[in-house]
Amino acid sequence: MPAHILKLNSSKGFSPRAQMRLRRAALGGELIIFPTDTVYGFGCDAFNEKALQKIYELKGRDPQRPLSTHLRSVSEIERYCEPLTAKQRYWLDQLLPGPYTVILKASKQAPKASVSPDGKVGLRVPDSRSFQLLAEAAGVPLVGTSVNRSGQPVFTDIEEIISQFGDLVDLIIVTNKPMSSQSSTVLDLTGSTPKVLRGTLPSHFSLET
Predict the structure, then answer these.
(1) In a 3-state reduction of DSSP, which class is residue 174?
(2) Residue 172 CB neighbour total at 10 angstroms
(3) pLDDT block averages, 10 residues each, the chain of length 209
(4) pTM over cut 0.90
(5) CATH number at residue 141
(6) Which of 29, 81, 86, 186 is the most buried (most CB within 10 A)?
(7) CB count in 10 Å sphere of residue 127
(8) How confident is the model at residue 209, as a pLDDT?
(9) 53 three-state secondary structure
(10) Count of domains in the chain?
(11) pLDDT value at position 205?
(12) Pairing mode, if any, of strands 32-34 and 100-105?
């Protein structure tokens, strides 16, 4: 069955009916394609194991590879990681919201799908009005991973995404905002200095206060 498509105007937000449809999708374990501040992502409720399994199967991704949890605000990060150091807070203040996945030490509340075997969690706070609106409507943390088959190029054109995956997911949220062609930069902040796992540090980034 073709996916239900919701068109989102980020300046107007979702209609009450669209909000209800999105929340029902998130709480019901449906697979969603949604916009971020980088590329479109496959997503679902971060705590729904059946839905998570569907994402791994759809991408052909190793279940041992964690998926990042996407949050609507920086304040939500501390729920899913161990207490932040002053240095980590300083780094996060420079990076988020923004196109970065930050790796921190996971708390017991962190979604298992986002926790690596060594106890680290990947967290995102996209700098995107569209994402903030959909996250608020969903009402649950969402895992996210780029729209592609594992190891293959990322799909960035929404029409191509609908053509390729429209029969394989339940809901597609289309934003009126232009999307990037680059996935998020991944930074491990668990050490004495940030470790870049993918991408590059922003030019304005400072290690010390």
Answers:
(1) strand
(2) 23
(3) 90 91 96 97 98 97 96 95 96 96 98 97 96 94 96 94 97 91 94 94 81
(4) yes
(5) 3.90.870.10
(6) 81
(7) 15
(8) 66
(9) helix
(10) 1
(11) 85
(12) unpaired
